[in-house]
């Protein structure tokens, strides 16, 4: 009967339901069997379309490597950034507006009235800082120096998404055939007002190992070599005071065997760029970066 058919369509597909409601008033002109056949045909047709749409959902590997490709293809980027980083006295919170150009590499930051400009090869590769407040003295600061590093996890050189893109690429290639054992596409969510893919990286093998310092190595050079965080090296080696400690050849350091124990990564479905990056180690939250008002 008509009511049974309508209920069937409501529980399956919206479009056949609309068409069915158009056809039903014409039922006297058709035999009931013809009407039923039409309904079944529409169900199968739209069912196959729906199934096809579901199978187009990308895999976690496809999303990750498409993100890496998008990062590599970037020419410029503009966004607002919110940072949470674990520090010596708790969590540090920062906010800034960022404009970034890749070739030549230029970085402009606006942080609570302070403006900063860094251009590769300009101003002796120092950041030009305009405080816009008393005593109104502009400064030229080394991006790797103490004043600009202090208790922060990263330098100006890691601003943007290139650095994290390289870390994620290293992780993905390291897993190889076991990629799916560690990396999962956990659905789709709207984050920072953007539709995103949610990627979970669960490093079940996270731990610490002993590293022997080589010739002319620093905390930062070791971190880059091993694709880990230099701040995490500081945390697990209490005898180290800061990034500028001079290391001796043969010195033993405790280092993590990976950048993170757990990563939650949200990737924008339009730009395929990271919108939110949450990093955890064995102690809990280590760092989190959220990108807003992304413009490419």
Task: State the major sheet.
Answer: 11 strands, antiparallel
- Spatial strand arrangement across the major sheet: 6-5-4-3-2-1-13-12-11-8-7
DSSP summary: helix tally:
9
**Approximately what portion of the residues adopt beta-strand conformation?**
25-35%
* Mean pLDDT rating: 87
Beta strand count: 13
What structural keywords apply?
296 residues, alpha+beta, 11-stranded antiparallel beta sheet
Question: How would you describe this structure to a colleague?
Answer:
It is a single chain. By secondary structure, the protein is of the alpha+beta class. 32% of the residues lie in helices and 33% in strands. It contains 9 helices and 13 strands. It has helices spanning 2-10, 14-23, 32-55, 60-73, 146-149, 162-175, 179-182, 219-226, 230-236; strands spanning 76-87, 90-101, 106-111, 114-119, 127-130, 139-141, 183-191, 194-202, 208-212, 252-256, 262-268, 274-281, 284-295. It has an 11-stranded antiparallel beta sheet with strand order 6-5-4-3-2-1-13-12-11-8-7. A hairpin with a 2-residue loop joins β7 (183-191) and β8. α1 runs antiparallel to α2 (14-23) and α4 runs antiparallel to α6. The longest helix has 24 residues, at 32-55. The radius of gyration is 27 Å and the shape is globular.
């Amino acid at each position: 009967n008509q009511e049974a058919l309508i209920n069937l369509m409501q529980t399956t597909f919206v479009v056949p339901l609309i068409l069915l409601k158009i056809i039903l008033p014409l039922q006297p002109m058709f035999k009931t069997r013809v009407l039923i056949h039409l309904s079944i045909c529409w169900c199968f047709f739209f069912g196959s379309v729906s199934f096809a749409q579901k199978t187009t959902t990308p895999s976690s590997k496809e999303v990750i490597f498409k993100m890496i490709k998008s990062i590599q293809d970037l020419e410029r980027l503009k966004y607002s950034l919110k940072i949470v980083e674990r520090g010596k006295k708790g969590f540090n919170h920062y906010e800034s507006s960022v404009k970034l150009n890749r070739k030549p590499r230029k970085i402009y930051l606006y942080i609570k009235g302070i403006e900063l400009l860094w251009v590769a090869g300009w101003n002796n590769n120092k950041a030009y800082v305009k405080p816009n407040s008393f005593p109104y003295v502009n400064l030229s600061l080394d991006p790797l120096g103490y004043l600009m590093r202090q208790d922060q996890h990263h330098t100006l050189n890691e601003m943007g998404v290139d650095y994290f893109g390289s870390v994620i690429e290293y992780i993905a290639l390291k897993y190889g055939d076991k990629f799916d054992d560690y990396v999962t596409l956990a659905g789709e969510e709207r984050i920072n007002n953007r539709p995103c893919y949610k990627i979970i990286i669960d490093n079940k093998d996270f731990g610490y190992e002993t590293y022997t310092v080589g010739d002319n190595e620093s905390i930062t050079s070791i971190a880059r070599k091993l694709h880990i965080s230099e701040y995490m090296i500081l945390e697990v080696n209490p005898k180290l005071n800061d990034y500028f400690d001079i290391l001796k050849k043969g010195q033993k350091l405790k280092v993590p065997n990976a950048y993170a124990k757990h990563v939650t990564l949200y990737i924008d479905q339009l730009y395929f760029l990271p919108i939110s990056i949450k990093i955890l180690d064995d102690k809990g939250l280590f760092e989190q970066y959220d990108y807003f008002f992304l413009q490419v």
